[in-house]
Structure formats: C-alpha cells, structure tokens
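Practice problem 4.
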C-alpha cells in the first residue's frame, strides 16, 4: 500500500487521509523512499528536504487525527522549482552564481502552501535562471524524462514536470516566462497551467523577465491543478503587479458543462513545423470536445510569427537588467579580484553559464543607446499587437485550442543550436506576451509512446473556464490511464 501512495493525485491522497486509509507521514516516507531509489536516474531534484518534510508530515498527521485539517492540501507532499526562495533552504535557480544561497525569507507561494499544510519534499532542477526548454542548461545536472530517460523533460521547469510524471512528488510549482510550465508539462504528460499575469504573486520568485514571469501548478490531473491554483492565487501587497481580484472556487468550476462553448482553432498554429502526429491529436481532441457539445471555428492570430522574435528581445532585455544584481557583493559566489570591477567580472564570468551570458549580451545590446528604439521599443509595440490579436479572437470565441509544442520530447543533446531550441516555444510564447491564462493537458501519445500536449487558452482571469473545459476533455479521454515505466 505505502509505495502506491506515490501514484495518487493530490485529491485522491487527501481523500485517503480523510478516510483514515493513509497518513501524511506514510505518504511522505513513500515519496522519500522513491526519490532515494529513482531520482539518481531522473535528476528531478536539486535539494531534498527530508527532515523538514518529515516534521511537517507529523504535524499534518496530528491535525488529521484530530479531524482538523487545514484544507485539501494538508499533508500533501509537493516540490518547488528552485526559482522560488525558501527560508532556510538552499535556492540556486540552477546557477553556480547562487550556489549555496540560503534565502532569509519565503516566496509568497511557498508561504501559502505551507499555511495550507502542504509538505515540501524539496527543490527541483531547472535551466539556469529559467532560460531554456530542456533542463540541459542547469549548472548542476540534466533532468531526464521519465517516459524515456534518453529524452529531455522540457524546460525550464523540467525538474518539476519530471518529478510529477515520475511519481516523485504529488504535484509541483513551476514558472512560465515563455512556456516553461506548459512545455515541460506537455513533454512529461502532466497538466501545467500558466495563470493570468498578476493572478499569482511573484514575490520571492527569482526574476528572469519580470513582465513575463508567471508562477503556476504542474500536476497529475486537472482537478489537482484547480486545487493548487486556488491555494496560491490571490492578491499580494508585496508584488506591485499582483491583481486584487477575488479568487473563484476553481474546484467547483470543474463540474460545469462545455455544451455551447465556442472554441477557436488558430490557423497559424498548424504550419509546416508542426509534427503531423501532434496536429492529428489536436484535431481528434476537437472532435471529442464537439462530442461534448462545444462548437469549433477556425480563427486567425496573424502576429503569431512575430511572437518568438519579440520574446527573444524583451525577455533578454529584462534579464540583463534583473541579473545585474549578481555582482559578487551580496549573493552567492564571489571570485576575488584586484578591485571591485575585477571581482565582479571574474564572479560573473565564472558564475553564469553560456546561455545566461548569451541572454545578458543580447539584452544589453537591444537596450543600448542607438538600438533601443529599433529593437526594444519596436518589440514592445509588437507585443501590444500580439495582445490585441488575442483580444480580437476572444470577441468571437470563448477559448482557443492549439498544440502546446511543435514536437514531442527530444533527445538529450539533440538541439545544440540555440535557435533550434528557441523554436520549441513558438506556440507558448505569444500567450506569455499577452499575459493571458493557458493550460496544457495530456492530449494523446505519439506512435513511440511519448505524451502529446494539448493547449487551451482563455481570456484574462478566465482560469475557471479553462479548467472546466480541460476537465471535461480529460474525463472524456483515456489518456491518464498510461504511466511511465520507471520501476
Ligand atoms: N524556453 C524559453 C526561454 O528559454 C522560456 C523559458 C521560461 O518560460 N522560463 O526563455
């Protein structure tokens, strides 16, 4: 029984606790044992906080025994991407420059999960500073895809997605700046939701591109995403861009029907670069949704082609500014030098990996005098057009249905050319630029047995609509029955 606990969704685990069939300590031990046995192969975790997890589980045991749980997450073992600051627990953001950095405070999302009684198992691996689509750019180790260890889990939240897919955590948090929740969710066959910008606090999240960074859940099914989003969403006065909108009951929203829902299918997403197996899976998903009473129409998002170019100007520009703080003075690594400037350059040269350096140089270039208007200023204007495309589309449809990625999980080392890697984000980046919510759910499998991601996109603050349609689709399809053969 105990090892099977790691197969359960969060809501099934919570039900087992309530029925007295399992305790948080048993589930936590089962996860710690599985991590010890398998994570050397998967590489999902950078830090495992076993003793703190055991203590939190014991406290949850006591609350459940007294029939006073803090809520549906009480005693549920979760993992956090190493981009979130956790008080007293090493937080590296996948970078040597933050090696050994122990934050003196918790990110708001970590604080909210702890207040809900969740048990943190540890911190998950990621591409350095969340720059990447494969988790091969972590300074510490690569993460492997539980469905096929020779393949990448996607990125940058690859450790979180692999941990959830491999039953090494009941659920996890990731961040999505250009696709880093949805793309690894698609590659690993998990659910991943990028909320509306401002819906979930960024306080305590190590910044990559502040106008694009979105924290969100990665889970085994849609119900768990609704649960986890409900726990982390809501206004936070410590994040100036956090929005003071009330948080709906996302779990209650799951029960609605999709009959009459108008779905738009963007023509520009079905281009040459799209794997035909994925195109077929999306068309079959539309068939399923039509069978449930939804209607579908073709729509156009004409600026789709510009999304990547705009993203790869704005994101590096913001990153070059955000990463200026790593100067060897206050945080992590310090390489001695003759004077302050020398110390700072030696520290940055040794502490940042190649991809991070590339982004800092790109970002500095597009912001420099003489180029600012031509690159950064123009990219900001096109970003407005991308946003407008979605607004116009949503005048006629309720949701947009699309592939999450152009291909399935690729092999380690397969995409060494940075441009080939960036192309992975073609269907996820526009949604980040627009700040609107989107979810990736399991939408079938390739002939080789790899998961395919189906993406649903909604207008701002319509996460409940997104979850309702995703849940209806999940219930109507057999995809969740398969699991990776890790052991
Ligand atoms: N792959 C994209 C990048 O490298 C997106 C990363 C992210 O969403 N954090 O920037």
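Answer key:
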């Amino acid at each position: 029984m105990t090892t099977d606990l790691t197969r359960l969704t969060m809501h099934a685990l919570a039900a087992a606790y309530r029925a007295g069939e399992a305790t948080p300590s048993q589930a936590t031990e089962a996860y710690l044992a599985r991590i010890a046995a398998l994570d050397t192969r998967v590489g999902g975790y950078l830090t495992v906080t076993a003793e703190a997890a055991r203590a939190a589980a014991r406290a949850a045991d006591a609350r459940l025994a007294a029939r006073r749980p803090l809520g549906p997450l009480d005693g549920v073992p979760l993992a956090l991407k190493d981009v979130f600051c956790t008080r007293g627990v090493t937080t590296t953001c996948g970078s040597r420059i933050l090696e050994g950095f122990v934050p003196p405070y918790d990110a708001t999302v970590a604080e909210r999960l702890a207040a809900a009684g969740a048990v943190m198992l540890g911190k998950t691996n990621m591409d350095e500073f969340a720059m990447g689509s494969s988790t091969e750019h972590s300074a510490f180790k690569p993460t492997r895809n539980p469905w096929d260890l020779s393949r990448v889990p996607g990125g940058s939240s690859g450790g979180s997605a692999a941990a959830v897919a491999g039953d090494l955590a009941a659920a996890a948090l990731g961040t999505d700046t250009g696709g880093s929740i949805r793309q690894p969710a698609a590659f690993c066959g998990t659910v991943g939701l990028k909320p509306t910008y401002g819906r979930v606090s960024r306080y305590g999240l190590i910044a990559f591109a502040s106008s694009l960074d979105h924290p969100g859940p990665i889970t085994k099914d849609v119900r768990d995403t609704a649960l986890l989003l409900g726990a982390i969403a809501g206004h936070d006065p410590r994040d100036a861009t956090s929005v003071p909108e009330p948080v709906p009951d996302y779990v209650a929203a799951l029960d609605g029907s999709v009959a009459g829902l108008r779905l738009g299918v963007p023509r520009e997403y079905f281009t040459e670069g799209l794997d035909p197996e994925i195109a077929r899976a999306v068309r079959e998903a539309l068939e399923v949704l039509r069978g449930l009473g939804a209607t579908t129409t073709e729509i156009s998002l004409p600026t789709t082609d510009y999304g990547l170019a705009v993203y790869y100007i704005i994101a590096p520009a913001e990153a070059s500014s955000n990463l200026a703080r790593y100067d060897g003075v206050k945080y992590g690594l310090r390489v001695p030098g003759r004077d302050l400037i020398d110390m700072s350059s030696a520290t940055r040269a040794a502490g940042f990996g190649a991809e991070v350096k590339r982004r800092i140089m790109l970002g500095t270039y597009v912001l420099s005098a003489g180029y600012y208007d031509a690159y950064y200023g123009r990219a900001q204007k096109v970003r407005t057009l991308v946003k407008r495309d979605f607004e116009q589309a949503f005048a006629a449809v309720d949701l947009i249905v699309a592939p999450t990625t152009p291909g399935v999980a690729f092999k380690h080392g397969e995409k060494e050319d940075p441009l080939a890697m960036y192309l992975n984000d073609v269907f996820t980046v526009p949604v980040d630029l627009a700040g609107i919510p989107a979810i990736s759910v399991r939408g079938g499998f390739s002939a080789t047995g790899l998961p395919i991601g189906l993406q649903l996109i909604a207008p701002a603050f319509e996460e409940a609509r997104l979850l309702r349609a995703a849940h209806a689709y999940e219930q109507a399809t057999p995809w969740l029955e398969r699991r990776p053969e890790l052991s």
